[in-house]
């Protein structure tokens, strides 16, 4: 029988939630790495028991963990993320030049085909790759040396590369997103990159439709249609049908188009989910109501999903990597909150139940569908 | 024999108890103690001092014999009671945050 495993990163450790295909009763394992910030965990699509985890701390720096048994046991891997060559400077918050300096791994993206190959998106923004299961890391410096990189400025969370989208039909193509530089695409396996931000408009930067400088929060893709990407930007939900060459807004009737998370239904590439957040100065859901919004039209027209979610006195946030889906016949949708709840919907968002409700603040949720 | 006390989060990372005992071949300095510690427990590499520069991480301190040795040269000899194993070498995380 099918099984589902949710890998949950929190401010104070990792938790692993497992259930059978009914997704009604859950086992909770953890905290793993208690006391440490776990920005992200993700399993290899090629070997689901191979799981990578980013463990970090303001005191002790970065640790990179790997499990080969689905998260039961872990081994610390290599944690040396050295920029290639002399890293130079990007812009600091005040506009002054600021030396590139590694802070942490925000996002891990295992290869679709090789369990030993995994990409890491880091702060200060750069893309690293390991080809030996996380033991050693090498930068793909073409991104950080992009012609615009000296002008990149951090968002409130830092200059972080937080999104890595791999094209299942072309192993040379990937898309990444950086706050607050924007989205970039490579067609040659990471050697060279193109800024793909045409159509984005961001108030608060001198030129609202500049080539770079946009605070992209997250990008999602359906594997059957890799040229279509959905984006939750700082403000605005966006869509491209040409791999990012041109974006258009699909915020439609959302109550607010600020937010962090966005994801796509496992079986319907036109069905997408977001969690609207009040504003950039109020990082909580509007009106005290926790509502996921679903569009069945690839954006533009949205419906609130509220059954089972608190609709009164709720003021949580849902971060960019804290939403995920499973690929069972009836697609499950999951998200975690700053209040420590992880909600699951076994029916594509029609109804929700908390799996757990008292974890530390949730940073990331990744769900694996296991045979 | 040198006795090293790690902060709690590094004990769980290394899978050790409150005190780690190390035997050193040569002289006992911050550098030789930390080198030996990282050889015994590779998971600790980069968590106490930068893996490249070998500089102490900013929010950690080194104490021994009621003295703050954090800003001493990493090649200075450690105090005799530490070398003798009667006093521990303390690696302490700054009291900040949650």
Describe the structure.
The complex is a heterodimer of chains A (371) and B (98). Chain A has 371 residues and is an all-beta fold. Chain A contains no helices and 30 strands. Chain A has a domain at 31-249: Methylamine Dehydrogenase, Chain H. The radius of gyration of chain A is 19 Å and the shape is globular. The N and C termini of chain A lie close together (7 Å). Chain B is globular, with a radius of gyration of 12 Å. The model of chain B has no long low-confidence stretch (mean pLDDT 94). Chains A and B meet through strand 6 of A and helix 1 of B.
Averaged pLDDT of chain B: 94
Helical content of chain B (DSSP H or I, runs of 4+): 10-25%
CATH class of chain B: Alpha Beta
Under CATH, the topology of one domain in chain A can be stated as Methylamine Dehydrogenase, Chain H
* H and E string of chain B: EHEHEEHE
Between the first and last Cα atoms of chain A, what is the distance in angstroms? Answer: 7 Å
Helix content of chain A: under 10%
What overall form of chain A do the CA principal axes indicate? globular
Number of strands of chain B: 5
Number of helices of chain B: 3
CATH H-level superfamily title of chain B = Beta-grasp domain
So, the CATH homologous superfamily of one domain in chain A?
A: YVTN repeat-like/Quinoprotein amine dehydrogenase
SS-based class of chain A: mainly beta
